[in-house]
Structure formats: structure tokens, C-alpha cells
Specification:
The structure is a homodimer of 173-residue chains. With 173 residues, chain A is mainly α. Chain A has one domain: Tetracycline Repressor, domain 2, CATH 1.10.357. The first copy, chain A, is 75% helix and 0% strand. The longest helix of chain A has 29 residues. Chain B binds a DNA duplex (18 and 18 nucleotides) through helix 3.
Chain lengths: 173, 173
DNA sequence: GTCTATACACCGATAGAC
DNA sequence: GTCTATCGGTGTATAGAC
């Protein structure tokens, strides 16, 4: 799974083959099929491990003493943009990957909504006209987009966006 | 190029091969190489055509009598999420596709920034603490994310996000 | 567990007939 | 312009030795 992630990151998901993964892992091609029934299984297992790690990170953020600040920091530093794109791209046309991805998206957003609502209530912060859901959505999408562009070598305007959101979230810090 | 787009949309960019594209287009495989020197050329040409059409749409929005409202409407209706993901995924590992994509992103954002700034000035609208750049970025990323999720069958929270942004952009309508 | 060897499908690209 | 035929390479997956 480590080798699979590496290939996706460096060469894209189209380059993931039993031969290439085996080469990176330092084993022979046939051995891949001793551990995974098919390449599809390997792919699904790899993404499942990723989403489990992602959820663990978000849960840790939610339990910290500054949930929203921790989440926002995590979204801006912890996202692996290239893996993320590969994930979406695959999810569009692979039912099993789509299930893994939509469950992760749904559960993590739910978690983030609750964290925002609880944090705002605890600190007496009024986020209107936004709602926890809208805020969670916007934080997620903007940080993902900045990660995407940064992965492609573009950072124009990112400082401005970050400054604006940092300011709006100031009371949570 | 139409056949290529169709294959990308329905089966993903990994399924784009001269044989598959030829089959969809109703021609023989070898003929693809009469019109395009390589599959890479076909892919780049296909995306180039898309970005040209995208820019034309944004320019039309910018010239309309309600630039920001037109842009926001366009972002929410005109984005082909699946093509968009394939584009990004490919751009990560194909230099020529990356160039096409980053130029498009950069030019379209520039255009949108100017449209927002001009529209706000003309209507005497104060968008602070946001800036034209930050606003363009957030509109783009949220609409893209909603398109992405909708393509995967998720629409939870979208109404809330749209309501919030519609409200914030109300003065532009 | 790990290897080698192999079957069979599909890939990009080219050659040459019409 | 469009076709058929073909090359070498790579893909998934399996069989069987050790």
C-alpha cells in the first residue's frame, strides 16, 4: 500500500500496475496477488487506509482545546492534494472507491460540523449568516483548492484567501 | 475530441486509448494517428478546446450587465465536474496538460477578479473584509466542490452553502 | 512466502493497400 | 482520407517449483 501511494503521487493512478507497484516495493510482480486478490482490491485497501487515518486526524482535532483552529490548520497542512485528486478521479468510475470516498466525505463533514457548532457555542461566537455546515464546506473546499493549485505550482492569491479566513476564524483561536 | 471527452466522462481518463476513442467515434484505430501525432496530442488538444470554451463563457459573463451574478450562476451550472477532475488528475503528471490547465486557471481567475472589482465599484458595494481575489477563489472552489460531490451523488449541505453565498452576493443581482 | 514462467488482452504507433 | 495488418511493449492474473 505504501508503494501504491508512492506510485499514485509520483506518476498518477493510471501508472498503478502490479508490475510497477512490485518494482517500487522491491518484490516480484506475482507476489502482489498473494496479498491482494486483484489490483482493484489493492487500490480500495490503500484508499481505505488513507480515509481511516484522515478520520483519526479530524477526530483528534475535534477533541483538542481549539477544535476549529486545529481543523483549519490541519486542512491547510495535512491534505495530500495529489492523492486527493487521484481519489476523486477514481471514485468517479470505480464503485468501490466511490463508496469509500463518499463515506469518508460524509462522516468527516458531519464531525467537522459538530466541532464547529460545539466550539462556537462554548466560546459564545456567532457565526451567522454562516451555519456550521456552510462553514465546514467552505473551509474544506478552499483548502483543497489551494492544495490543488500549490501542487501544480500556483500560489497566486492564496495568501489573500488565507488572511481572510484566518480573520474570520480569529475568535476560535 | 468529442469522442475523447465522452470516454473521459463515462470511463475516466485511464480508459482513453486510440482503440476506445476510435470505437466511440466510429472510425478505425489507425485513423486517429492521421489527425493527431500521438495520444498525448489528442489529449492536449481536447483540453485546450475545453479551456477556450470556458474562457469564452467567463468573458461573456464579465461583459454582461450583472457580471458577478452571471459568473456565480455559470460556476454553479456550467462546470463539468467529471471532466474537471480528469483534467486536474492528468495535469499532475503530464507537463503539457499542466501548462494548459494552469494558464486557464490563472487567466480565468484574473478575469473574474477584475469583473468583481469593477462590478463592486460600479454598484458601490463594499466587499471587505474580502478582496476580489479572495472572493473569486472562494466562489470557484465551493462551486467546484459542490459539482464534485453532486457527481458522486452527494448533495448534503449544498443548499445551505448556496443560500449563504447567494445572500452574500445579493447586492450584485 | 517468494519466486519463475506463462497465457492472453490491450496498448501506442507504424507500414502499406486502396 | 480511410482501411487492414502488424510490431514490440505492457497490463492482469494464474500455475507450479521451492
Amino acid at each position: 500500500m505504501d508503494a501504491t501511494e508512492q506510485v499514485i503521487r509520483e506518476e498518477g493512478h493510471a501508472a498503478v500496475s502490479s508490475r510497477r507497484v512490485a518494482e517500487v516495493a522491491g518484490i516480484q510482480q506475482g507476489l502482489v496477488y498473494y496479498y491482494f486478490e486483484s489490483m482493484d482490491d489493492l487500490l480500495v485497501a490503500t484508499f481505505q487506509r488513507r480515509t481511516a487515518r484522515g478520520m483519526a486526524r479530524y477526530e483528534k482535532d475535534a477533541r483538542s482545546d481549539k477544535p476549529v483552529a486545529a481543523l483549519w490548520k490541519d486542512l491547510n497542512q495535512g491534505l495530500d492534494a495529489r492523492m486527493s485528486f487521484a481519489f476523486v478521479s477514481l471514485a468517479s468510475h470505480n464503485e468501490r472507491v466511490r463508496e469509500v470516498y463518499t463515506r469518508f466525505l460524509s462522516e468527516s463533514r458531519q464531525l467537522q460540523c459538530e466541532a464547529i457548532a460545539r466550539d462556537a457555542a462554548a466560546r459564545g461566537i456567532d457565526i451567522s449568516p454562516a451555519t456550521p455546515m456552510a462553514l465546514a464546506f467552505i473551509l474544506h473546499s478552499t483548502s483543497l483548492m489551494m492544495g490543488r493549485e500549490a501542487a501544480l505550482g500556483m500560489t497566486e492569491g492564496h495568501e489573500e484567501v488565507r488572511r481572510l479566513l484566518d480573520g474570520l476564524l480569529e475568535k476560535f483561536a
